[in-house]
Design a protein that fits this description.
CATH topology: TIM Barrel
Radius of gyration: 17 Å
CATH class: Alpha Beta
Order of helices and strands: EHEHEHEHHEHEEEHEHEHH
Shape: globular
Strand content: 15-25%
Number of domains: 1
Number of helices: 10
Strand order of the largest sheet: 1-2-3-4-5-6-9-10
CATH superfamily: Aldolase class I
Largest sheet: 8 strands, parallel, barrel
Number of strands: 10
Distance between the termini: 12 Å
Helix content: 25-40%
């Protein structure tokens, strides 16, 4: 998996079918993100929902992760246990969303901020303790443009990464977009890698041109730059929506 690529979760986009169709050549594909609250801990309903998505995603030949979050931690625990029961390979906890329904409760991307890290560590430990498959924690290097001010979310990402590992995370996934400048931030990856050997996944803008198009050559150069900066795995999001073969062709050139 190290040095490879795959598909990053995108709400209302990355179904099992999307991952199965567009994820050939991937080391990992991510279905979701799915909110766990509507299932209210109903394990059968969770398994019945997730199993067909996992089976579809496996057509890619990749390991399958689910990106998920919830307001109710007990419901979230049952959801991830249901994903494992349904045959999934990795759980990714979404401390990444800019949705105000979560952010207003101290969850979502703001959970990486120092004042909310206590709850981040609580969620991480509860989920890790409930699982026998690896747990990934996803967050943002920079706050989204929709927040009104693009700023670093965490004070020290290397320290945060190590704390997440102590609380049970097997990997960290960072969205490294700096949306106000339409670029990705390699420095945060170097900052983490200089001080931590955590398995580091990165995503954000890879393969996207400044004009809004998609370029394989740019995807290759972006992915190599991100890997060279310290990431272990590069995931593609929007570029895969515009070019169904870009992940497979990128994997061949890495």
């Amino acid at each position: 998996m190290r040095g490879g690529t795959g598909i990053s979760s995108m709400v209302n986009v990355t179904s099992g079918k999307f991952c199965g169709d567009y994820g050939r050549g991937s080391a990992m594909v991510q279905i979701g993100g799915y909110g766990a609250d509507p299932y209210e801990g109903n394990r059968k309903a969770i398994v019945d929902f997730l199993k067909p998505h996992i089976e579809e995603a496996r057509r890619s030949g990749a390991k399958v992760a689910v990106n998920t979050l919830a307001l109710n931690l007990d419901y979230l625990v049952e959801f991830v246990k249901g994903f494992e029961e349904a045959g999934g390979d990795f759980v990714e906890y979404n401390a990444h969303t800019p949705s105000q329904g979560y952010v207003s409760k101290g969850l979502g991307y703001i959970q990486f901020a120092p004042k909310n890290q206590r709850s981040l560590f609580e969620f991480t430990k509860r989920l890790s303790d409930a699982l026998s498959i690896p747990l990934i924690v996803k967050g943002r290097a920079w706050s989204p443009a929709s927040s009104g001010s693009v700023e670093r979310v965490a004070a020290d990402y290397a320290v945060l990464a190590e704390e997440l590992v102590k609380h049970g995370a097997s990997a960290i996934h960072l969205n490294i977009r700096k949306e106000d400048e339409k670029r990705y931030d390699l420095d945060v990856l170097k900052e983490i890698r200089d001080k931590s050997d955590v398995f580091l996944i990165a995503s954000g803008y890879a393969g996207l041109t400044h004009g809004g198009g998609v370029s394989l050559d740019k995807a290759v150069s972006d992915a190599k730059a991100i890997l060279d900066a310290g990431a272990d795995l590069v995931l593609i999001g929007e570029a895969a929506m515009h070019d169904p073969t870009i992940v497979e062709r990128l994997a061949e050139r890495l």
